[in-house]
Every structure is written in C-alpha cells, then in structure tokens.
C-alpha cells in the first residue's frame, strides 16, 4: 500500500520532476511549445480572418511563447506548493489537485495574453485570442503519469 502512495505522489510531481531531473527533455519541450503556440496562432489568425498574418505572427509569437512557458512553470510551482501544504492528503485527491494546477496555468495564460501580449488589440479580439490560447495551450501534460515515461 505504501508503494502505491509513492507512485501517486510521483504522478503529482510530473512537471517539476521532469524539468529538474531530466534536463535533456528541455530540448523537446521548448521547441514543442513553440511549435504548438505557432500552430494555434496561425489557425486563430485564419479563423478570426485577421489580415496581415505574417506581421501578427512576428509581433506576437515570442510573447505568447514566453508567457505560456512562464504560466506552465508557475502552474508547476503551484502544484509543488499544494504538495508542501497538503502533503499526504494530495495522494488521495491527486487528480483534483493536478486539474487545479492545470486550470491555474490556463488562467495565467489568459491573463498574460490579455493584459500583455494582445493589449493593443481591439477588446473583443483580445478576449477571443486570449481565451483560445488559454484553452488550446493549457499544460495538459500535467495529467501524464510519470510511470508512462519509464
């Protein structure tokens, strides 16, 4: 029974564990996030019928990428904080805590994009783009059990 609790505890620590103990994964994670952000931006620009897609892309992609990555890191830190505060309780409610951390990251993605990345855009476009990025680029990888990586 104790072994089962340890497995669950490691599942909760997935993002921080992977970033700190397997640095080569950064070589996959960073370009992967950039590619996903690029795809979401280009599809959004096309779907929202925004003219001059090239300039929009160049002007916003690096901010989107940086703020998205920051939101993922802050979500991981939030998950670690929950672990530190709730300790063993988190083992019984790991899915709930992991979902909460994913939602916190998504909210941060929305806030960062709304107030910083797209701040000079029209209000309705600003809201739609920020919402698209919050939903499409939330760190769903938090849900991947670490046992799958072994």
Could you tell me how far the N terminus lies from the C terminus, measured between alpha carbons in angstroms? 21 Å
**pLDDT averaged residue by residue:** 85
Tally of discrete structural domains: 1
Tell me the β content.
Answer: under 5%
Low-confidence stretches: 5-14
Kindly state the number of beta strands: 0
Describe the structure.
The chain is mostly helical. The chain has one domain. 78% of the residues lie in helices and 0% in strands. It is built from 7 helices and no strands. The model is unreliable at 5-14 (pLDDT under 50).
Index terms:
mainly alpha; 7 helices
Map the helices and strands.
Layout: H1 2-12, H2 14-21, H3 26-47, H4 53-86, H5 89-92, H6 94-117, H7 123-136
Helix pairs in contact: 1-6, 3-4, 3-7, 4-6, 6-7
Question: Summary?
Answer:
This protein is mainly alpha-helical.
